[in-house]
Amino acid sequence: MSIDLLFPNITDANAAELERFGDILKKVWPMKAKHRDHLRYDIKDMSRSLTSERSERRLDYMTDAKFLSPYLCYFLPWNLYRMSRLFTGMELDIPDNGEIVDIGSGPLTAVIALWMSRPHLRERKLNFTCMDLSAKAMQAGLSLFKAMAGDDTKWRIKTAKASFTDQIKRKADLIIAANAFNELDWSGRTSRPQAEKLTRHLIKSTKESGRILIVETGVRLSGRIISEVRTQMLEQGFNPLAPCPHVGTCPMPATGKGAPWCHFNFSVKGAPKWLQMLSAEAELQKEGVSLNFLYLSRKGGKDWGAVRTISEPFDLHGGKAQYACSDRGLTLVDYGLRHRPLYPGQTIVPDWPDKPKVDVKSGALILTFKEQPAKKQ
Ligand SMILES: C[S@@+](CC[C@H](N)C(=O)[O-])C[C@H]1O[C@@H](n2cnc3c(N)ncnc32)[C@H](O)[C@@H]1O
Predict the structure, then answer these.
(1) Using CA of residue 256, residue 257, residue 260, residue 266, what is the dihedral sign?
(2) How much distance in Å is there from the Cα of 234 to the middle of ligand 1?
(3) Are strands 314-316 and 319-326 parallel, antiparallel or unpaired?
């Protein structure tokens, strides 16, 4: 089967690092017994505030101990897991002496996830610049990273208290903005100029051969953010490497009610036990996690007509189907009764009929799944 897979299972070594991270947290961020007892409630409160009560939060909320502890103990490790799955499946060949900028870095989540999931990069001299409004979060992240990677790490990390569009001094090989842009207000008419401004800033700060990675939370709003930014990126000369298999208009922009939006769900296989237990304590047990992302470069990926599966499979006429994205727009892959659906994020080599049928409910073009050609070695 010729299948290009996003979000492969993490390696055993990566799972072991995530497990070890629990012990590192205890050492680097020790908590008094009464605070530890209260942690589950703080996690619950923060989870609520990150979703429904956003506008009431201070801009520098990550400096507040009430938020920082639950973030470090719960949100950071889950983001490490999500990003480990993402980074494992990505082509991420940052050159020796490369410059990586992480904006809205919080406690250096992306840096730590990169270290855990891509061991081939540990041997390279890499220069990271992490930028965030909260110096405290970055400081905590730096201590966690040092405990994880050891003193003799080749990675050099600078932190700067800065806003998303503050000047980036050295042009980057890779800029990451993870779970960051949803902190801004995307309601109303300002969303387009905001996407335009962020995009201009990111592109201006990237080397000619550089890449930009935006990771978001997987909810509908972040689907819209990604799609707004994608439109601006295309207009300003940057093209998707993943997940989009084409450079046309996004067919899943999260604008219509009920319409599918671009995000991926995957299992929590390999997530650390201590984190699962803490999540259960906070009544936030997880069987799966989600994210959306956009990875771009000036050159972009190969536009060979691939179809990328997006949604989880669902029942259709007694068989299974799945929403997907292609250069023809929103696509409904019909597996019928014979074929097993793919995982979200896999690609299909399509065999389109001359006149594909249209799904009445979604307006998607229907693609009947056919056995895939064997993969070239
Ligand atoms: C949800 S956290 C994400 C942290 C980290 N990137 C991660 O994935 O875990 C969002 C971060 O964005 C920062 N932030 C919010 N608004 C910002 C802004 N305008 N400029 C820079 N950072 C900002 C917050 O301080 C916070 O650390």
Answers:
(1) positive
(2) 25
(3) antiparallel
Residue type, 257: K
Atom of ligand 1 nearest to the CA of 83: 8
**How far, in Å, from the CA of 3 to the mean position of ligand 1?**
34
* 3-class secondary-structure state, position 203: helix
Q: Which of 166, 179, 184, 190 to mutate to test the pocket of ligand 1 (most atoms within 8 A of CB)?
A: 179
Report whether pLDDT(99) > 90: yes
Residue nearest to atom 27 of ligand 1 (CA): 106
How far apart are the C-alpha atoms of 246 and 331, rounded to whole Å? 13
Instruction: Give the tens place of pLDDT for each residue, 68-81.
Output: 999 999 999 999 99
Q: Which two tokens stand for residue 221?
A: 């709003």
Q: Is the pLDDT of residue 31 over 70?
A: yes
Q: Which amino acid is at 55?
A: S
> What pLDDT score does 376 carry?
55
* Angstrom distance (rounded) from CA 243 to CA 301: 9
Task: Quickly state the pLDDT bin for 100 (edges 50, 70, 90).
Answer: very high
Query: pTM for this structure?
Result: 0.96
